[in-house]
User: Fold these one by one.
Assistant:
Number 1:
Amino acid sequence: MTSQGLDEFAGWVEGLMRARGYDIDSPRGGGKSRIADEAGVHRAAVTRLLQRQSMPDLETMRRIAPLLGVSVRDMLIRSGRVTPEELPLADDLLPPNDWQPTMEDFARWLGVPDERLGVFVKVVNQFLEPDEEDLEDAAAVEARRTARD
């Protein structure tokens, strides 16, 4: 990370801290210690960030983010460690609302090999509720069986 990137990130975090009411400006304000205590991190990690000496590690970001009202994802992206494309939002990964997965889709998600796909679909379909046509067919088969007996 460049010093400019660290400076921008630290400035962003400072703004969040101030907006949340942490007194990080006065030497005796206690804001840095309070953040560190509430987040469960070392005060030195907060101080090093605010003095633009080093970027916090992932665990420190994970602990500080909720106090500042941001996601860890936002912190990681703002820090320059990842891009939005490398860490997409869950909504970006979801299929369209009208998409209905097939039994083959489920088989692939579960890692069923292609050569066993047909067997998987047949077995699973045995456990699913039959539709009306299947019920009518089953009733006709049962009626023929009863007539034979």
Note: The CA atoms of residues 5 and 130 lie 60 Å apart.
Number 2:
Amino acid sequence: MSSTPLTLNLLEGSVSFSFSPQAAQELKVATDQLMVSLKAVANKPTPGGGKVTPQPPLEYRHTGEVFLEVFCNPNIWPTPFAAKVLLTIRNLNIRLTTEAELTRLIEDVNQYLEQVG
């Protein structure tokens, strides 16, 4: 486990917790895939131009010293920059469930990977 904590900036405040570089890399891959799905939804054809294929949601889970779950349905957001994710962070003593901006989550994970890399 890395000694550098992952800090996620929330809509109000932030939360820091132990997170491994490998788990952060997996989360980065998952959020990159979500961005592709969000862009596909944002670039949907004009009304009457055909049916849009629903995109799969992001359902990332990591169990370690702290359990982290990230959920986002790309079909409900007009653009990737408007998208928010639902975060659940818990361990034996505390559980936090809140929303965070997707773009901020991506920035936080990238910054963490730069620090530990």
Note: The chain has a mean pLDDT of 92.
Number 3:
Amino acid sequence: MRIHLTSLFVDDQARALEFYTEVLGFVKKHDVPVGEQDRWLTVVSAEEPGGTELLLEPAGHPAVKPYRDALVEDGIPLAQFTVDDVHAEYERMSALGVRFTQEPLEMGPVTTAVFDDTCGNLIQISTQPQ
């Protein structure tokens, strides 16, 4: 069993696509119209184009807003991405105007940082022990 697809609710799919591709460096995989305004919109890691897809899903369901608002209020990231160097990504992304809610924090062999994805979510980046 493998994870093929996971989703992340976003306030605006066009803005999310721009942020996730132009700032984070993901690559658009699928972009299929669904209904009048929504899309089946997925991105993948540029390093693993055949890897796990991230669905940038419209946040229209009534349960989404209170759920995400509670997570953001408590500083809890909704997803985590692995990077080679958290400090370098923090510097690169900060220079692009990304707002971090947690600067790089070293916890033993793992370093993490948390940022606002501009689409309603907090995202954590981390390095994993070698």
Note: The chain has a mean pLDDT of 96.
